Amino acid sequence: MRELFYNALDVAVIISAMELNCRDESHLIDSIWDGEKVFLYPEYRRNQKKFILDVRYWLNYFYEKPILDKEFPAIQKDTADIKSSFDEESYVSDFSNLDLFFKNIRLRILYSTEKDYVRLKLRTLLKEYGYKRRSKLLLEHINRCMLFYHLEATLRGGVSCCIEEVGLDKMLTFRVL
């Protein structure tokens, strides 16, 4: 259950993708802290300063990531020179996971000025996160995320649908209840 709560890294990933200016970023971080406390990791719920500092730390990382990535080969060489090793995956992982998708759409719907919904095909969602078919466990996880984040999926015309039964090429509209 803990993996469903927002951590600072999740929030930073979502905000950095929005490409906001500093003032809008700060306003959004404050809005998320005020409006989404129930969805935050417990250690952030009573400590706004820690939440803001941790989100800012990760935002700075993402903004400096191209520079850091250029230095990565030198780090690998230095490590090899001293006959040491490190877990490369820890430094190169892309932070993409299905939980982040649902966190992202909830925050975008509630705090973005774009739209109050997100639309995409179920096939696109599954493909983007590396799934080829709908297994029972995957569907249970999707439904758990939708329930946790108070999201509803509908078909064209606002017709409620069940993820288990909807066709892969049907356009889904996600909204916050």
What does this structure look like?
By secondary structure, the protein is an alpha+beta fold. The chain is built from seven helices and four strands. The protein has helices at about 10-20, 20-35, 50-80, 90, 100-110, 120-130, 135-150, and strands at about 120, 150-155, 160, 170-175. Strands 1-4-2-3 form a four-stranded antiparallel sheet. A hairpin with a 3-residue loop joins strand 2 (about 150-155) and strand 3 (about 160). Helix 1 (about 10-20) crosses helix 3. Mean pLDDT is about 85; it is low at about 90-95.
Note the topology.
Layout: H1 8-18, H2 22-35, H3 48-81, H4 88-92, H5 98-111, E1 118-121, H6 122-128, H7 136-148, E2 151-155, E3 159-160, E4 171-176
Antiparallel strand pairs: 1-4, 2-3, 2-4
